Amino acid sequence: MKNVAKIEAARAAAAKYLRGQGYEREASMIAEGHGDDFREVRIALALWNIMHPALTPPIKKGGRRIAGEEC
């Protein structure tokens, strides 16, 4: 389900961007799900991954956490 939300958000962002640039046909293709290989969709997916990083547990070394803690 998470991947579906990610691709839908990327498609919406890419379609909005392309419409704003005057590329109505390409924006319609993306909005319908036929343009996932467009550069704008790939960039939007990359931005999604940057803005929503995967949660990982803190790294432990010798029984102590070395990431995500102060002191």
Helix share, percent: 55-70%
Number of DSSP helical runs: 3
Span of the ends, CA to CA: 38 Å
Side-by-side strand order of the widest sheet: 1-2
Based on the model shown, name its key terms.
71 residues, two-stranded antiparallel sheet, mainly alpha, 3 helices, 58% helix
What are the SSEs and their pairings?
Elements: H1 2-21, H2 24-31, H3 39-51, E1 60-61, E2 64-65
Antiparallel strand pairs: 1-2
Helix pairs in contact: 1-2, 1-3
What this model shows, in words?
This protein is mainly alpha-helical and 71 residues long. 58% of the residues lie in helices and 6% in strands. It has a two-stranded antiparallel sheet. Helix 1 runs antiparallel to helix 2 (24-31) and helix 1 (2-21) packs across helix 3 (39-51). The protein is rod-shaped. The model has no long low-confidence stretch (mean pLDDT 85).
Quick summary:
Helices cover about 60% and strands about 5% of the residues. By secondary structure, the chain is mainly alpha-helical.
